[in-house]
Amino acid sequence: MNKDVNQQESLSLEAVLTWHLEAGVDETVGEDAQNRFAEKPPAPVVPEVETSQIPGAKQSTSSVPSVNGDAAVQSAYTLAAAANTVAEPRDALESFDGCPLKKTATNLVFGDGSDAARVVFIGEGPGAEEDRQGIPFVGPSGKLLDRMLASINVQRSDVYISNTVFWRPPGNRSPTTQEIAACMPFVERLIEIIDPDILVTVGGPAAVSLLGETQGVAHLRGKWFSYSTARLPAPIQATALFHPAYLLRTPARKREAWRDMLAIKAKLISD
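The structure assignment produced for this chain is given below.
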């Protein structure tokens, strides 16, 4: 038994070291690991400010194309608005039939992680393995994301991970505007309930939907935005990250992704 545990730990460490090397890391700082994600500090009492008053951040609100006349989207907003815990949007989605992806998917893939996470990651949509397990980011992309988190001394259980749509698009295609619009009220409510310090969009569709930006992630990464909704007590700092699937296809971009992970860690330390 101990031998198996030791082997698993060795493999985990090897995976993290591999990610470090591929990302161009050549130096370590500090002897003891510090987990800045584990606890969310008490929110300071601050006066209300306009988003435009936050220095160094571009204003952003959810930017799903307008389909307000669509009955499915209106139903989604009604169901999502009634949720007050992380579990409640998921429960509402079980009975929600407004997204056509539900008809072809095997499982609902809602989210995974801590309800009190300081960082929320929103990706594009479930793949084949996620559809089988009902958990986001558990395939090859998910394993890389886990290594990326581990490289800055963070466990997956410390953050919260979800997607712009909750069912797998057939053939792993990108979700359509209508499919994202049907799911976005639940995504927004999830973010409001958790109220993290940082929102990270993972991949292009998430950046478009949540940051309101049409440029690719290559132009958005390394920048900070201000994400807000009507029910958030204050704007959230947000940034864009390359999708792990893209990094698997384009390893040369891992150096930039490493810098982005360090920037996220630095933001947490400074807060």
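Interim note for the steering committee: The radius of gyration is 18 Å. Strands lie at 58-61, 111-113, 119-123, 160-163, 198-202, 225-228, 236-241.
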